[in-house]
Amino acid sequence: MDMIKNIINGIQKNHNFLLTTHLSPDGDALGSIIALGLALEKLNKKVDYYIDPSIPEKFNFLPKIQNLSCNVLDKQYEIGIILDCGDINHLYDRTILKKCNTIINIDHHINNQNYGNMNYINSKAGATGEIIYEIIEFLGVELDHNISKALYTAIVTDTGNFKYSNVTSKTHYIVSELLRIPIDAWKINKKLFDEYPRSKIFLVKRAIDNLQFLLGGRLAIIVITQDDLKDIGCSPKEIEGIINIARNIIGVEVAILLKETASNEFKISFRSNEYVDVGEIALRLGGGGHSRASGCIMHGNRDEIISILKGIVEKKL
Amino acid sequence: MDMIKNIINGIQKNHNFLLTTHLSPDGDALGSIIALGLALEKLNKKVDYYIDPSIPEKFNFLPKIQNLSCNVLDKQYEIGIILDCGDINHLYDRTILKKCNTIINIDHHINNQNYGNMNYINSKAGATGEIIYEIIEFLGVELDHNISKALYTAIVTDTGNFKYSNVTSKTHYIVSELLRIPIDAWKINKKLFDEYPRSKIFLVKRAIDNLQFLLGGRLAIIVITQDDLKDIGCSPKEIEGIINIARNIIGVEVAILLKETASNEFKISFRSNEYVDVGEIALRLGGGGHSRASGCIMHGNRDEIISILKGIVEKKL
């Protein structure tokens, strides 16, 4: 709590801020930055936003979303605030570290490297947005329509629509406070989780066509080749979430997705449901991740790779 | 608020209770009844549960779920509490109306018929479970693991996992209170929303195979025949949710599902996204429902029916 007070103090007595986050910003990164930026602006601070412009279209409803990429060349800031970025190597642009007198690092990733001059890391928060809610409260800034929308987006995305095990009593408490302002949360929710282009449906069909059950149905594998994507007219980004088709089937313990990224090269994603540590499997194959969700790269033809993976998973079941 | 106090009073001064709900109980009905029943038992009341035994397997994790079907023959109760049942014709068994000296009707459906001796209807509640939370609080019963689990289930099912427009600040506030008790909400959530038998996946594939886009992609239709179900080895119940495959596609305003129930007989479901009042369409065809979700029965062959529906929808777009 002392650290959060120091951060509040640092914010209060400075005027020039740069807000940034990790590459390929997600809903939590975007929502957190926008909410904090709006709150700072309400305190008459000068705020620049500096974000990787590759923002998925579905976030277009967010306030300020078109104005988050500034030119930082020849600029210097009193405070740089880096949000939701655990690994400094994933920062959008490391040159900002020299452009800011003080770096404040605010995050909820458990393995955050504490690279800031001030670091507030709360790994019990389901989203960085939850921490930003607290900071805004400490700053004495009242929630408004735009801030609530941004924070709702941050929290709902990083908790998988309140589904993940990172959701706590506090998560729902904060959302109940946000929804005191009528923000049509269901519309945001629909946009983020329940809208997809037609091609996604045909990708789902292809994934089911390619679905294999091995080891008595406890291992389910989906392969998506470059030809599949070309046939369907899908971008590789649309593969997000496809692995859950396999994971959610009753009886499946391990789900694996092989995404062909080049000839004889596959990006492999692993998910497990109850007990297999797929983080360990990915690590052994040169990748990484968590016990229930991990990934790696493998080379070879698909049948060879599937055979290797089958062998590894079999020993874990 | 007076009515809720009368009800609390009625509960406090009586001893013998029968709790019941509508036919084919859903998560809100089950969770509400179990939570209220457990609370009454904590107050040393005698509680009988009387529920349509056709309970979907996914609710098996709920406390008391195996003990909800009692024999009410030759019994008489001081109080019968009917939960989550707007229409008395949907009550599991109307004979109980004579077996209870007083009927308390607690519900959140806006069109509730006020058929009880005491009626507490709050259509602003996202689930009957939200009302039961309040009643338990009024009764002064502390939440415990089983009550929290039951109420979480009630609320999460009737709000579509916090997605629907019936979710309010209060919904999240109540859930934040429930989650003060460690109930592994994510496991309940997974069981209710993210687990399906293998056959469901093949039904999804068949639905996509059968998907038709009409009227420039603004109308999407899925047909599921009895042969489809037979081929796949699916029960008709698994069709639940399939219509959303069509509804969620960007550009679709109206989604229609034709479920063949007999030769030349189809159960038709309608969904819309933004502006078409599908309640009106269903009503005109002898069915009913809401402006964004409705249904009816139609007779004829599928192509004729599709052609009729296309004509009706075209005028509304």
TrEMBL record, chains A, B:
One of its GO terms (molecular function) is nucleic acid binding. Residues 17-155 form the DDH domain. Residues 231-314 form the DHHA1 domain. Gene3D superfamilies: 3.10.310.30, inorganic pyrophosphatase (n-terminal core). PANTHER family: BIFUNCTIONAL OLIGORIBONUCLEASE AND PAP PHOSPHATASE NRNA. This is Phosphoesterase RecJ domain-containing protein. It comes from Garciella nitratireducens DSM 15102.
